[in-house]
Specification:
This protein has helices at about 5-15, 75-85, 100-110, 155-165, 180-185, 205-210, 220-225, 230-240, 280-290, 295-310, 325-330; strands at about 40, 45-50, 65-75, 90-100, 115-120, 130-135, 140-145, 170, 190-195, 215, 245, 255, 260-265. The protein is an alpha/beta fold and about 325 residues long. The strands form two sheets. A nine-stranded mixed β-sheet has the order 5-4-1-8-9-10-11-12-13, sandwiched between helices. It starts with a helix and ends with a helix.
Length: about 325
């Protein structure tokens, strides 16, 4: 794996990925490392249009929506806002927007949410759009029109400087995969690169090798590996990317370290209204806590609580909880 994986091993040796000592309760220790670690998110910005329906339509079926709502979205923007609001970390978002009113409004909303933005405007294209259908049970179906997010504009000098100062760099795959390589090249040696491999797209061996922590849901893991059982998928993925985290919706999450040791993080029970953005909230909070030096167990516990809270409200960004709300749920032990 080379020097990049060695850098990840150095962070593990310092305790970032250490398990809790025997007898310790991670729920009581969940604030053990909140300091001032910096997160940089490289990813997409979208304008979300959400329609609420009784059931998601089948192919060829027409259904009537009960409500229509617009809000900020995009995996990059959602995760950056979650890292700042629910994770409490100083966070910068690097993204691409169109030269349009929607891009300006979304940039302002992110700034108001505590996220530092570095957004390059892509001429002659539109800001990304997402069309979301949400059922009564909270499940969703999403169509994304990438627009400016598809741009291959390279990281500029200011963006590379921001990456170099980050403790954690978080990426997803609604933007070109080459940003993985660019981010790794700009990062300091002890920085941590987290990839949320969503949506699933082809990646090169060098891109996989750049990843320190991989986050996928159960469906994405199956699509990447072809393995239907989570333990087998985890084992395949860790050979590509070191530490792997698989989210299981209402069943919690699994973590496999680079040696194949698997830990299950139990779920928090909440009432589901809308699952849109829950995975993004999870990823942003995970990145924030790892940037602040928390163990992987503590980071996953807080990420799980944040994701559980997010499904109790509608919309991707409006549903992201505050840091105090996350702490309260973890403290409650529910």
């Amino acid at each position: 794996m080379g020097a990049r994986r060695a850098g990840c091993r150095r962070r593990r040796a310092q305790g970032t990925f250490s398990a809790h000592a025997a007898g310790q309760d991670p729920r009581r220790d969940h604030r053990n490392a909140m300091s001032s670690g910096r997160v940089v998110v490289i990813g997409s910005v979208n304008c979300d249009t959400s329609a609420r329906v009784s059931a998601i339509p089948r192919p060829g079926e027409t259904v009537l929506a009960r409500t229509l709502e617009k809000s900020g979205g995009g995996k990059g923007a959602n995760q950056a806002l979650a890292a700042a609001r629910a994770g409490g970390a100083p966070t910068t978002l690097i993204s691409r927007i169109g030269d349009d009113e929607e891009g300006s409004l979304l940039e302002k909303a992110l700034s108001n949410g505590g996220v530092t933005t570095q957004l390059q405007i892509v001429p002659a294209t539109h800001t990304g759009q997402a069309f979301v259908t949400v059922s009564e049970t909270g499940e969703n179906s999403i169509v994304v029109v990438p627009g400016a997010n598809n741009s291959a504009l390279p990281l500029n000098a200011d963006e590379r400087a921001a990456v170099a100062q980050a403790d954690v760099v978080l990426l997803q795959l609604e933007t070109p995969t080459d940003y993985i390589r660019q981010a790794r090249h700009a990062m300091r040696k002890d920085g941590l690169l987290i990839l949320n491999a969503a949506p699933v797209v082809p990646m090169t061996h060098s891109e996989w090798d750049a990843v320190d922590v991989l986050v996928v849901n159960q469906h994405e893991a199956q699509e990447i590996t072809g393995a239907g059982e989570p333990p087998l998928a985890l084992d395949i993925l860790r050979r590509r990317a070191g530490d792997v985290i698989m989210t299981l919706g209402g069943e919690g999450s699994l973590h496999s370290d680079h040696e194949g040791n698997v830990t299950r993080i139990p779920p928090f029970a909440t009432k589901v209204m809308d699952t849109t953005g829950a995975g993004d909230t999870f990823c942003g909070v995970l990145a924030a806590h790892l940037a602040n030096g928390a163990s992987i167990t503590v980071a996953l516990l807080n990420a799980s609580a944040a994701g559980a809270l997010s499904v109790t409200k509608r919309g991707a960004q409006p549903s992201i909880p505050t840091l105090d709300e996350v702490r309260a749920l973890v403290d409650s032990g529910d």
